[in-house]
Write the structure tokens for this entry.
Amino acid sequence: MNQAIGYLGTEICCEVPESRQYRIRDLWAWHRNFERFRGAFHAEFERFEEWLQSEKVVEREQFLGAYHERLDDGSDEDLVLS
């Protein structure tokens, strides 16, 4: 994702250390950048997800959602958090 246009970064937060529960948020400059990335790299992303589970890096994953935040400056840019 580092090379994707509009990708701002990923936040990782350990919510419950005892159960090794983490929340991961990917941040995008514009929701269309994220949609283009998802469309262009769908197969690669699926392979990566399969690898994470096969190597037991991720025990379980749950998608919590995505939303757009309209900026207060009146611009048409918005931020996607997922």
Observations:
- The CA atoms of residues 8 and 28 lie 5 Å apart.
- Strands lie at 7-16, 21-28, 67-70, 78-81.
- The radius of gyration is 15 Å.
